[in-house]
Specification:
The protein has 135 residues and is α+β, with helices and mostly antiparallel strands.
């Protein structure tokens, strides 16, 4: 149970989740509940020949997040090359930037920042009171 909670803490705070699915079962984004996960990029090895490894890439966006370039058409296969690595990296970066602009993320981020500032303010006031009493 603690392993699941630890994974949830780390995965739950990512805006874009890059998932390597090494099995045959499809990945369902709704199996991870989080206010911060906005894009799931799933990479699945299709087959490996002597000198070639092929991958399928699928992308799921939370409502309100705009699709971004580079486009990954449904049913596309990619060979493991430096170009594929660049395409995947560009997709992750652009997806995160798009998520930052989505209304759902802006609202969640505003709530977290407000709570953080409130906690920081209360901590500073408590320290100030203790410091004055010690004098």
């Amino acid at each position: 149970a603690s392993t699941v909670i630890t994974k949830k803490i780390h995965i739950g705070n990512d805006i874009v989740c890059l998932i390597f699915n090494d099995g045959e079962s499809p990945f369902h984004p709704d199996c991870i509940t989080s206010q911060f996960n906005h894009v799931f990029i799933v990479v699945q090895k299709i087959h490996q020949e002597k000198y070639r490894t092929m991958y399928r890439v699928t992308v799921a966006y939370k409502n309100g997040v705009n699709k971004v370039r580079p486009d990954i058409p449904a049913g596309s296969f990619f060979e493991k090359t430096p170009e594929f690595r660049k395409l995947l990296l560009a997709k992750v970066i652009n997806s995160e930037r798009s998520a930052y602009r989505s209304s759902g993320f802006v609202d969640a981020l505003t709530r977290v920042r407000s709570q953080f500032l409130l906690t920081l303010h209360q901590s500073c006031i408590a320290k100030k009171l203790v410091t004055k009493e010690e004098r």
